[in-house]
């Protein structure tokens, strides 16, 4: 006999399924049954499923029936396979349905008229401070200068002029233009890196909470995701190192400034510590340099992981779309030399290259100093809103929420105090009905339950008057 | 004992490895040894490797050592894992090195001065017939009309105006604008679809030969790729159906007009047959509508798979960059309703959205009738080159190569006759030294060996005089 008696008992207890329903394929019956067992917690999250052979013998079906059932479970996100070890149950995220509700609600509203809403969900600057005429002049200058070439010629790393400007203006020449790859934004950067260096079942660490768009890519890539809580100066280092000790970590994804959603910036001390650990435990840091241009608190000094790195451990991602204008779709990536070729190939296989005319326009815009002026304008304007929003939160929500001052960026991350029953899903729904849009915290966690007391409010699309109005409404909804 | 005696013998013969080299981790020794066995054909392509447990016992190491060795083999492309079945050897493609040589050589030349070369490798129209001033006017009109909005506002499916124009101008309103997703080109379309509907180890069929950029995506996605030879009116249907019968195929990737590289267009009869089979065997057709605007032979009537489909079986991909100007980076995708949401999410996770200003410009360009005029100009100009290139091939290479007349598109696919010893790698190298660039056929095959007698020459970047000059040089190199 191949099956040990305890395994038989285990299977008997947990896996009994009636296979005499002729119209439905057996593998589907088995799959459905196991799904129910997982949903109802009879089989727990990460519990090992019986081996294919033993379950097949027990149910008196072919091995391939079990293989198909397990494959279906995997496809539906109910199981993961570990090489040489077997198949494991995976609990479905109970809040997945809310994510869908949330994005559907926003889509619907955005497609209608936004005028009736106070929109605290903005992720990027609005265009209100952007002088479109300057950009128009730049675009025309490019077309006069380069002609059709501006729309044809494609360099494998991106337009050389722009790479030059990035090297000179943003890195003081300390990064070689040949080490810069032009991409279409941070989201693409995360996708390209994942394709080039992450394989199925590789392990990565992310901050808790973190950017949901990154989580999606890593989940899609079927990596094993570990989360480390963010504290007021960056991640919890003890928990971080504990995970590094126990697991073979390939990559740590982090937003180094005004992290999305917490607004926290990692301290230089922690950055240096993390870089050391990267060398010891042989992992790489995927740095998403998010909104580091918008610093309102002068005590914050800007140092990216990339600028502190001496060992080629950082995959640096920068989006121009976030701070500039989302519709331009340009960003750049500086990979370690080791990954340069594979990430470049990853770009080619993903979308060949980024719009060459927009690269030329952005280059000229930077070289004319327009970029610098624009960022200064944004800084002034958003600093006012930042201060105002903070005041309003303290005034109207002071006894209802807790938060850490970010000192920059475009948003606040608030926690509804423990003694208040309301969660942020309920808050989202009620606020929406009263014309206020917020982002509930659950979107930023691997297990969304952890985010249910949190919500994010951004001031990028809301003027001072509406900030006050919106927060007042929120305070009416959140009842102690 | 767990190991059967024949398995012991098998392992003894094939897997003997000296594990007493203390400085190197055991799993690496084992991995290196198996790699050598695969390279030297002791273990053949697709041969099953011993089970983890039996090999571990035999070598007296931990299971995890073998797991790590097999993982490394997988990462390096020397093994694939099949769920519930084990790990299988995978032979490395012997011509992979040439692909690298080829792309490096082209990169180097493109970065230098192209003036000294006759470039037969062009994949897209050059800008010489494009009236940049018209485009400039359109761009300015968009900026005057929409202001900063042109650079900010992002719709989840892409700019509504452009989707409207596509629906009206290219589909006579028969495709709903809500079923169109704007993307940044065909390559992105292939990538998005693969992410949304293909899982590791899923099976797909491609044409033999096929577009290398598609092959890369499918390989990267770790799908099982089947190839069906292309004949003069499309794929070989017997071979196609044989594969469908034996395997669970998820998708068939095809270029329906002037296929890259063969230049062949699939007949309507075959298209209808393939659509029927899709319904019977439950697979989907990924249609890359490649250059169908450039038809020189009036007997060719344009019917895409998408326009013949009644069962929502086609994932239609169209690139504007290919026919228009590569630097614009715009295309669109029409998925079956069933996949609409997952492909849209795939787009968001890949790069959020496509440059909104370029979408607006293209929309206006189409609506003003400029697109139609431009395509007519291209048709006239390229038809002349097409006829001229065909004449030159017959005149100078008539006794050295065979080919099928494509009747449209931008290139010819030539086969060096069997009695001639030269292969296209040698031809590429010698031609390059004499200032002529061609594309060797090996790039278009899963096993590149099959393409070694073929090469592709495109007339998109070469005027009539240089076409004649270049082909004359090729005829001097190819010696009977």
UniProtKB/TrEMBL annotation, chains A, B:
SMART domains in alphabetical order: HTH_GNTR
Pfam families on file: Aminotran_1_2, GntR
PROSITE patterns xref list: HTH_GNTR
A GO term, aspect molecular function: transaminase activity
Entry keyword set: Aminotransferase, DNA-binding, Pyridoxal phosphate, Transcription, Transcription regulation, Transferase
Positions of the HTH gntR-type domain: 24-92
Family: In the C-terminal section; belongs to the class-I pyridoxal-phosphate-dependent aminotransferase family.
Protein name per Swiss-Prot or TrEMBL: PLP-dependent aminotransferase family protein
């Amino acid at each position: 006999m191949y099956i040990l008696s305890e395994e038989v008992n285990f299977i008997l207890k947990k896996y009994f399924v009636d296979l005499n329903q002729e119209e439905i394929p057996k593998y589907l019956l088995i799959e459905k049954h196991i799904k129910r067992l997982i949903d109802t917690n009879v089989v727990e999250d990460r519990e090992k499923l019986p081996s294919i052979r033993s379950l097949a013998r027990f149910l008196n079906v072919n091995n391939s029936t079990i293989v198909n059932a397990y494959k279906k479970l995997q496809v539906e996100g109910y199981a993961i396979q570990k090489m040489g070890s077997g198949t494991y149950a995976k609990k479905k995220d109970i809040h997945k349905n809310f994510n869908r509700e949330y994005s559907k609600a926003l889509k619907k509203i955005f497609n209608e008229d936004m005028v009736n809403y106070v929109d605290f969900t903005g992720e990027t600057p609005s265009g209100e401070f952007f002088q479109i005429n300057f950009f128009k002049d730049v675009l025309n200058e490019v077309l006069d200068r380069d002609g059709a070439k501006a729309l044809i010629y494609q360099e494998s790393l991106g337009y050389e002029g722009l790479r030059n400007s990035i090297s000179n203006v943003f890195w003081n020449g300390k990064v070689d233009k040949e080490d810069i790859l032009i991409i279409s934004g941070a989201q693409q950067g995360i996708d390209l890196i994942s394709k080039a260096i992450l394989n199925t079942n590789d392990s990565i660490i992310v901050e808790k909470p973190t950017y949901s768009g990154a989580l999606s890519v890593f989940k899609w890539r079927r990596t094993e995701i570990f989360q480390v809580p963010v504290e007021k100066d960056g991640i919890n280092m003890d928990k971080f190192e504990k995970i590094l000790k126990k697991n073979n970590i390939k990559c740590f994804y982090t937003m180094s400034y005004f992290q999305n959603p917490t607004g926290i910036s990692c301290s230089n001390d922690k950055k240096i510590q993390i870089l050391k650990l990267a060398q010891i435990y042989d992992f790489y840091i995927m740095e998403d340099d998010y909104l580091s241009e918008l610093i309102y608190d002068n005590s914050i000094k800007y140092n990216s992981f990339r600028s502190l790195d001496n060992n080629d451990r950082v995959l640096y991602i920068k989006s121009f779309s976030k701070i500039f204008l989302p519709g331009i779709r340009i960003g750049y990536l500086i990979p370690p030399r080791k990954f340069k070729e594979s990430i470049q190939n990853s770009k080619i296989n993903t979308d060949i290259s980024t719009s060459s005319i927009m690269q030329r326009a952005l280059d000229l815009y930077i070289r004319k100093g327009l970029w610098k002026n624009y960022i200064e304008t944004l800084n002034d304007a958003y600093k006012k809103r930042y201060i105002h929003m903070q005041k309003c939160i303290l005034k109207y929500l002071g006894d209802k929420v807790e938060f850490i001052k970010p000192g920059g960026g475009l948003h606040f991350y608030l926690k509804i105090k423990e003694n208040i029953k309301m969660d942020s899903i309920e808050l989202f729904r009620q606020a929406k009905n009263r014309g206020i849009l917020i982002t509930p915290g659950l979107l930023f966690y691997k297990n969304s339950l952890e985010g249910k007391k949190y919500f994010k409010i951004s001031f990028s699309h809301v003027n001072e008057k509406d900030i006050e109005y919106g927060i007042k409404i929120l305070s009416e909804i959140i009842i102690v």
